[in-house]
Amino acid sequence: MATAKAVKHYQTALLPLQQTIVAETLKFYNGMLIGVYDLLLASQSQIQTGRQYIAANRDFWLAWTELERVVGGRISLPTTTGAAEPPSTPPTATGADIPADNAHQHGDTQS
Amino acid sequence: MMTRREILKGSAALLAGGAVSATFRTADAAEKAAASTKPPIPAPPGGHYTPVVTLNGGTLPWKMEDGVKVFHLIAEPVKREFAPGMMVNCWGYNGSTPGPTIEAVEGDRVRLMVTNRLPEHTTIHWHGIFLPSGMDGVGGLSQPHIKPGETYVYEFTLRQHGTFMYHPHADEMLQVAVGMMGMFIVHPKNPQSRGVDRDYCFMLHAWDVDPGTFTPRPATMTEFNMWTFNSRVFPGNDPMVARTGERVRIRIANMSMHDHPIHLHGFNFRVTETDGGQVPETAQLPEVTVNIPVGAIRVLEFIANEPGDWSIHCHKSHHTMNAMGHTVPNMLGVRHSDLDEKIQRLLPGYMSMGEAGMADMTDMVAMGMSLPANTLPMMMGEGPFGPLEMGGMFTLVKVRDDLARGDHRDPGWYQNPPGTVAWKLEDGSPAKPDESGGHEGHSR
After folding, report:
1. Among partner residues A24, A28, A110, which is closest to B19 by beta-carbon distance?
2. Which segments of chain B have a pLDDT < 70?
3. CATH number at B56-187
4. How many CB atoms lie within 10 A of CB B67?
């Protein structure tokens, strides 16, 4: 359940926070208060968080599959564990479109 | 490639989705009033002076009690609007930073009551004024500190005339950094001496208000980002106005920790006075710029003999900017606008700036790009011919042929007589454009 908690934390806290950081950093850039490199660092950090989120999802589903194998069949996803509510669908990044493998593909999905 | 305007539209949509809502708060009616230039208080019967006009401030009313002029200053936290779009948590006097100007006449007996509504003790030092040592206002040296809730009385006879200041001498570093200051004008007893038609005063100060915040950092010593005339920045500053041919006096006091070379366009002036007294006429150099040292006052006088809108500003160009990044990478001449498209895939609101100069900042502002909360653009202001690209220590002296005596209201933009505005060279011919039409600017 630790992996489910991690996934939830990315969804509810870290990804929205990174989105806010990038939006606020862009405001500082707009005001010529910081340079473009600081802005790119904020974007890089957001992308890293997205990749970590995907990795957390992967860990959850691997652990889940292993659990199903051990008990010998499909089991329904737990929904009453309080804070730890795992994703009910395969993961897609919320907020910004987060690349799965490398950052270069990211732009291509938007153009 | 997307145009700047398209980019900004995209950026706005993005920000609407995920951004923290701006915590910006506009000034309420009392705060607006505190930052407006109030009419001067006329000289009392028998007085023979032109009352001083405090830029974006006012004069402290007094009452006579047994031949003593009684003033009451209340030290308290205040909210100051530096310009529309930026409110600052300050300390000041009677609802304002700077505090109201004290105005009296040489020979007056003055009683200055000081009530402390701050969260810590304070005192007031009367900078430049000759008085008994026990009235000098240095906490712990001249007197006990004025604790919160207490009222102290200062009383002395004004033995000189001139331009002075008042400020705390208790936790002075912090209290001055957050705005505690005011001016103290003593007119000469002799009505014949030193008469002027217009008399203005303001104080120079510097503040460090981190973008996105509201409270100045008192610990900053050199790297300030807001440079103010009477705790206002351009375009929040009111203009000083005069009728053509009038004699104008401007009294400028420096409470900041930097020197400020104040430059006046259009006229030459003489420094007739410092906080140490009158400058002999033979020592008054003709000047167009005067350096105002830290903790000093310079009084300029000139004849406003040319109508127009004339700039007056600190000649340190960074001091006519609002908050800006002093450590941003130097992009001047660095070709990077061709990377816009790539960076925009990561950051839809991104636009390169600084490659051909920094004026593109003004375009961005005009198109409504987002800045951090409670933060003014580094350069702003709109004139009759376009953006002024100024901030901080900048305002105007407006001289007009048709102003009434004592009318201090902003007359709007100057209407240039036809043929007197610089014109664009067309077809290689230096001929003036249509003399009757001309570019005369427009009224606000």
Report:
1. A24
2. 1-24, 191-194, 433-444
3. 2.60.40.420
4. 7
